[in-house]
Write a structure and sequence with these properties.
By secondary structure, the chain is an alpha/beta fold. It folds into 2 domains: 62 residues, Orthogonal Bundle (Arc Repressor Mutant, subunit A), CATH 1.10.10; 182 residues, Rossmann fold, CATH 3.40.50. 33% of the residues lie in helices and 24% in strands. It contains 10 helices and 15 strands. The strands form 4 sheets. It has a 7-stranded parallel β-sheet with strand order 6-5-4-9-12-14-15, sandwiched between helices. It has a 3-stranded antiparallel β-sheet with strand order 1-3-2. Strand 2 and strand 3 form a beta hairpin. Helix 2 crosses helix 3 and helix 9 runs parallel beside helix 10. The longest helix is centred in the first third of the chain and has 15 residues. It is globular and about 55 Å long.
C-alpha cells in the first residue's frame, strides 16, 4: 500500500472511530508499527489528527490551543476590508486568458468572487478556491491532488508537489503567516511550505498578498525571501516597519 493510500485509510478510520492505535493500524494496514508512527507524525503536521500516547485522536476535542483548530471557513468568515481591498488589487493584475495559481489562505481566496466572470485557467490546491470558482462559466480549474489537510481545506504532500512541478503559470498569488523585518516570508505549517515554494518556481510572476497585520505576523518556517516575489500587495505603505534587503534585492509594493 502506498503512503498516500495509508494516510487516506488512517483518516477514514479516525472519522469512523475518533481514535486509533498504532497496533491496530499496523495490523489492519499490513505494515510495521514504525511505519504507522511515521505516518501519524506526518498527518499530525498537516492538522489531520492529534498524536496521543499509543496512537492518534481526531482533531475535535484536542487540547491544542483554539487558534490551531480554526478551520478555513472560520478564518474566512473574519475576512477584513483590508483583505478584500488587497484581493481586488491582485485581481486587477490578471489578464483574460492567463493561467494563474491561487495559494491557500483567506486573502487569496477573497480574489475568487472577483474572478467568476473572467476567462482564465486557475491552478490550485485549495478546495475553497475550487468551490468558489466551480460554477464560473469561463474558468477552467486544475486541481492539484494529494493528501487532504481537512482543517484548512487544502491538498498537500508529494503528489501535490509532483503535479505542481509539471505546470507553468503566468502569475501566482500567495499568502503567508508573516513577514519579518529581514525580508523573510514565513509560514507555520511544514506541509504547506513546499507547495508555496513550488508555486514560486513555476510562476513567471508571483505576488505576495499580505495585510499590515502580517508584519511581522507569525510563522517560524521561511518560505522565501520577499525579494523573490515580483511584488507585494498590501493595504498599507509605508509598511509597519522598514524591511532590510541585501544589496541588489528589492520588491515592488502595490496598494489598493
Amino acid at each position: 500500500m502506498l503512503s498516500e493510500e495509508r494516510h487516506q485509510a488512517i483518516a477514514a478510520e479516525l472519522r469512523r472511530r475518533g481514535t486509533v492505535t498504532v497496533t491496530a493500524l499496523s495490523s489492519g494496514l499490513g505494515v510495521s508499527e514504525a511505519t504507522v508512527r511515521r505516518d501519524l507524525e506526518l498527518l499530525a503536521e498537516t492538522g489531520t489528527l492529534r498524536r496521543v500516547r499509543g496512537g492518534a485522536a481526531a482533531v475535535r476535542g484536542s487540547v491544542r490551543p483554539e487558534a490551531d483548530l480554526r478551520s478555513f471557513a472560520d478564518v474566512a468568515g473574519t475576512s477584513t476590508a483590508a483583505k478584500q481591498a488587497i484581493a481586488a488589487r491582485a485581481c486587477s493584475l490578471v489578464e483574460d486568458g492567463e493561467v494563474i495559481a491561487l495559494d491557500i489562505g483567506t486573502t487569496v481566496a477573497a480574489m475568487c468572487p472577483l474572478l467568476v466572470e473572467r476567462s482564465l485557467t486557475v491552478v490550485t490546491a485549495s478546495l475553497a478556491v475550487v468551490r468558489s470558482l466551480a460554477s464560473a462559466p469561463a474558468v477552467d480549474i486544475v486541481i492539484l491532488g494529494g493528501l487532504l489537510r481537512p482543517n484548512y481545506d487544502s491538498m498537500v504532500g508529494t503528489l501535490t508537489e509532483s503535479a505542481l512541478g509539471q505546470l507553468r503559470v503566468d502569475r501566482a498569488f500567495l499568502g503567508a503567516a508573516g513577514v519579518r523585518a529581514d525580508g523573510s516570508v514565513l509560514d507555520s505549517t511544514p506541509s504547506e511550505v513546499p507547495i508555496k515554494r513550488g508555486l514560486l518556481d513555476v510562476a513567471a510572476s508571483s505576488y505576495l498578498l499580505a495585510d499590515h497585520e502580517k508584519f511581522p505576523g507569525s510563522g517560524f518556517l521561511e518560505v522565501a525571501r520577499l525579494s523573490r516575489f515580483t511584488a507585494l500587495v498590501t493595504d498599507r505603505s509605508p509598511l509597519p516597519f522598514d524591511i532590510t534587503f541585501p544589496d541588489g534585492e528589492d520588491v515592488e509594493v502595490l496598494q489598493p
